From TrEMBL:
This is Hydrolase TatD. A divalent metal cation 2 binds at residues 147, 171. GO terms for cellular component: cytosol. The keyword Hydrolase applies. Pfam families: TatD_DNase. Keywords: Hydrolase, Metal-binding. It comes from the Bacteria. It comes from Candidatus Doudnabacteria bacterium RIFCSPHIGHO2_01_FULL_41_86.
Length: 273
């Protein structure tokens, strides 16, 4: 079986001591990956890492919404200070190579908005930087990798007005089938990760059941969101097989079928030969 982790961060500091070993472990297990940038430095590193490998390792470049203003963040298994950046088109154009297969992750994140008078200015800034990246993706004929948290109405409206008819993926999807369908209707794919394996709400099972097989993608979002049996430890691309197995279990099909389909889907969306 071949697997595709369409969203990982082996370019992050969590892998600084064993980056090459982690990637080798994935490739030896027939797992391909896209290392995703979240600001300038991690985007550059994603490209540098991808260049090392003749096959199976790709990059996405972009500015995550939490890096459009400074704040202290508590992600699962991670605590870090965000950086304040803007999306400078010329800087990102210098990163473009045949190894860059997407723009992102980009989008809107209203989960940690300030409660004071800065709230509206932060939302405005996130929207501005998101639109810049949509235009950049459109210009360079690249799909987008979308990060969205508590902001679906605004984000979908922006996609309709600024990115109509073009493709991308709703990364780390955790919402309802109703929201998933809105992305699908725009031509987007739905990506699922470790959250699927420990979701108790039943929402994601409904998403899996209703999303067409040719529009599903698998990802890890490593080093975060580790699935069982490694829960509580650092995630890595080779664990994407547990997402494949969970989708197969929910849809009552063989894992080989899900692996083949999601691998093919990734190659199609990201234009990988």
């Amino acid at each position: 079986m071949k697997y595709f982790d369409t969203h990982t961060h082996v370019n992050f500091a969590a892998f600084k001591d064993d980056q090459s070993e982690t990637i080798k472990r994935a490739l030896d297990g027939n797992t391909w990956m896209i290392n995703v940038g979240t600001q300038t430095d991690t985007s550059k590193l994603a490209v540098e890492v991808a260049k090392i490998y003749p096959e199976g390792v790709f990059a996405a470049i972009g500015l995550h919404p939490v890096h459009t203003y400074q704040q202290m963040l508590d992600e699962e298994e991670s605590h870090f200070q965000s950086r304040t950046e803007v999306f400078v088109e010329s800087d990102y154009e210098q990163m473009l190579t045949e190894k860059v297969v997407a723009v992102g992750e980009c989008g809107l994140d209203y989960f940690r908005l300030p409660s004071d008078s800065d709230r509206e200015s932060v939302i405005k800034k996130q929207k501005e930087e998101f639109v810049k990246q949509l235009h950049f993706a459109k210009k360079h004929k690249l799909p987008v990798i979308i990060h969205c948290r508590d902001a679906y109405a605004d984000l979908l409206e922006i996609l309709k007005s600024e990115y109509a008819g073009l493709q991308g993926v709703a990364h780390s999807f955790t919402d309802t089938w109703e929201i998933a369908k809105k992305f699908l209707d725009l031509g987007f794919y739905i990506a699922l990760n470790g959250i699927l394996t420990f979701d108790k709400t039943g929402k994601l099972a409904e998403v899996v059941a209703n999303t067409p097989a040719d529009r599903l993608l698998t990802e890890t979002d490593a080093p975060y969101l580790t699935p069982p049996p490694y829960r509580g430890k650092r995630n890595e691309p080779s664990y994407v097989r547990y997402i494949v197995e969970k989708i197969a279990e929910l849809n009552k099909v063989e894992p080989e079928e899900v692996a083949f389909q999601t691998f093919s889907n990734a190659k199609k969306l990201f234009n990988i030969r």
